[in-house]
Every structure is written in C-alpha cells, then in structure tokens.
Amino acid sequence: MAENIDPRFFQLTRALNHPVRIQILNYLMKHGQSNVNSIVEIVNVSQPAVSRHL
Fold first, then answer.
1. Predicted local distance difference test score (pLDDT) of residue 47
2. Measured between alpha carbons, how far is 4 from 22 in angstroms, rounded to an integer?
3. CB 21, CB 2: distance < 8 Å
4. Contact between 36 and 53 (Cβ < 8 Å)
5. Angle made by CA atoms 18, 24, 28, in degrees to the nearest 5
6. Averages of pLDDT over each 10 residues, the chain, 54 residues
C-alpha cells in the first residue's frame, strides 16, 4: 500500500509532525499573513523557535 503513496505526502506529514507547527499553520489559515511577533504571542514559544518552525 505505501508504494502507491506519493513520497511528497510523507515529507509533508513529517514536516507537520510537531504541535508548534500545527498551531502556526492553524493560525495562518485563520488570519492569513502575519509577522513572527504575532505568532510568538499565539504559540507561546521564543521568536527563534517560531522562526525555525516557519
């Protein structure tokens, strides 16, 4: 079964396999564009951490 799945799908799921990344994505989907400082306030992690996840 796995051989029929596009490898990009696995890359995407690995990239989203972190709670902070999921929170960031959810925020951006709801609010569109944003700056890092706004995201820092929402996800409650440091600015360097948010930048890494982006």
1. 95
2. 26
3. no
4. no
5. 145
6. 77 86 92 92 93 90
pTM of the model: 0.73
Spatial separation of the C-alpha atoms in residues 5 and 39, rounded to whole Å: 33
**Tell me, what amino acid is at 10?**
F
DSSP characters over 1-54: -GGGS-HHHHHHHHHT-SHHHHHHHHHHHHH-S--HHHHHHHHTS-HHHHHHH-
In the prediction, which pLDDT does 2 show? Answer: 61
**pLDDT confidence of residue 36:** 93
Determine the Cα–Cα distance for residues 47 and 28; give it in Å rounded to an integer: 16
Query: What values do phi and psi take at 34, rounded to 5?
Result: -160, 170
